[in-house]
């Protein structure tokens, strides 16, 4: 998000100077792009003109329209923000592919949890927007709740990567990374959508550090894996990751408070307003479970071990939903599944 942390502290950057800067940038964006760009839903910001992904062909257009219209329930203006398409192009394409909000394909009761790439165009936060300008969609996926197929959380995997080199990667614009401080812009990527509904992506940074994520949904949970390779010539240390779960679009979980969070390392859980449902995440090697009331979001943030040149390490993660009131008992049940176990690293 970042809420970014340094030396174990969350640098929330609520100082007035940054707020003024964000306001100036937002105002400039308003006057520069108001003729062509819509307001992000619920965000109070204007989408920057180049922060969209235009579908490359008809197959991609059809896929993303289904994603946005059927599941994320986007308005046409939000589709424009995500794709750069004009309203007339959207209307024509929806008619061509017969995509309407009332004719989506519903999964059966035995299906895996519904996990989709997040399309962008709608800011995944409610607040602290100055800390997440132009969020990039290649790290973000939506996990839809089993009790309400219109409600979802947005996972940011990873939101940020820290190392002894400094802020090594950030999935939006906020403070400088080691690349933006040098004027280097990282290429935009996309999730790879596999036939078994697994999502994965990988990125190699200019200095040879590479990392990737795999997200595999099942009926009872979403299993996740993150890997990082040291492709530099020097030892990497202090490899801290921020993995975020944002609840803006999960009905009953969108309250801007930390009072509905339970943090029991490695588990971080968010309780619904009626107290009967929970969203739970965990990562192995979690060095800090925490939450941010402004966004709102919660984290189980892992840490990679120090890596010598050429070495790769993998971490596993978990996300699930729970209906009940005994969250500590549910943590124990999840622990008993052995979700962290694997043949080797």
3D structure, described in words:
This protein has 345 residues and is an alpha+beta fold. Helices cover 18% and strands 30% of the residues. The model is unreliable at 4-47 (pLDDT under 50).
Topology record:
Layout: E1 5-6, E2 9-10, H1 16-33, H2 58-71, H3 76-83, H4 87-97, E3 115-117, E4 140-144, E5 152-163, E6 166-170, E7 192-193, E8 199-204, E9 210-217, E10 222-229, E11 239-246, E12 261-264, E13 267-271, E14 277-283, E15 286-292, E16 297-304, E17 312-323, H5 327-336
Kindly summarize this structure in a few lines:
By secondary structure, the chain is α+β, with helices and mostly antiparallel strands. The chain has 5 helices and 17 strands.
List keywords for this structure.
345 residues; alpha+beta; Beta-galactosidase, Chain A, domain 5; 8-stranded antiparallel beta sheet; 7-stranded antiparallel beta sheet; globular
Helix content: 10-25%
Separation, N- and C-terminal Cα atoms? 28 Å
Give me the Rg, rounded: 20 Å
Please write the CATH class name of the domain at 107-336. Mainly Beta
Q: How many runs of DSSP E, i.e. beta strands? A: 17
Q: State the helix count.
A: 5
Could you say which overall geometry the principal axes of the C-alpha atoms support? globular
Which whole number gives the mean pLDDT? 88
Q: Topology as H/E string?
A: EEHHHHEEEEEEEEEEEEEEEH
Q: Main β-sheet, in a few words?
A: 8 strands, antiparallel
Estimated share of beta-strand residues: 25-35%
Q: What topology, given as strand order, has the largest sheet?
A: 7-8-9-10-17-14-13-12
Kindly report the CATH topology of the domain at 107-336. Answer: Beta-galactosidase, Chain A, domain 5
């Amino acid at each position: 998000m970042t809420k970014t942390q340094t030396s174990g502290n969350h640098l929330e950057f609520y100082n007035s100077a940054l707020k003024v800067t964000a306001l100036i940038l937002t105002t400039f964006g308003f006057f520069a792009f108001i003729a062509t760009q819509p307001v992000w839903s619920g965000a109070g910001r204007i989408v920057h003109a180049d922060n969209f992904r235009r579908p490359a062909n008809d197959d991609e257009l059809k896929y993303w329209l289904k994603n946005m219209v059927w599941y994320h329930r986007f308005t046409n203006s939000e589709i424009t923000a995500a794709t750069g398409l004009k309203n007339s192009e959207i209307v024509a394409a929806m008619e061509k592919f017969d995509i309407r909000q009332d004719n989506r394909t519903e999964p059966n009761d035995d299906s895996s949890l519904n996990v989709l790439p997040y399309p962008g165009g709608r800011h995944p936060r409610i607040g602290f927007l100055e800390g997440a300008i132009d969020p990039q969609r290649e790290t973000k996926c939506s996990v839809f709740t089993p009790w309400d197929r219109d409600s979802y959380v947005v996972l940011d995997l990873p939101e940020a990567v820290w190392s002894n080199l400094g802020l090594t990667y950030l999935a939006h614009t906020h403070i400088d990374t080691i690349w933006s401080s040098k004027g280097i812009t990282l290429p935009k990527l996309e999730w790879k959508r596999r036939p078994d509904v697994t999502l994965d992506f990988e990125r190699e940074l200019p200095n040879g550090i590479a990392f990737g994520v795999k997200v595999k949904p099942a009926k009872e949970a979403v299993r996740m894996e993150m890997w990082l390779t040291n492709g530099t010539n020097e030892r990497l240390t202090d490899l801290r990751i921020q993995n975020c779960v944002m609840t803006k679009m999960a009905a009953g979980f969108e309250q801007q408070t930390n009072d509905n969070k339970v943090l029991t390392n490695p588990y971080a859980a968010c309780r619904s307003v009626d107290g009967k449902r929970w969203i739970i995440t965990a990562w192995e090697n979690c060095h800090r479970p925490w939450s941010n009331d402004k966004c709102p979001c919660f984290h189980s943030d892992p840490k990679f071990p120090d890596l010598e040149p050429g070495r790769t390490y993998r971490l596993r993660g978990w996300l699930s939903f729970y209906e009940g009131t005994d969250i500590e008992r549910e943590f124990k049940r999840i622990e008993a599944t052995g979700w962290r176990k694997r043949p080797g690293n």
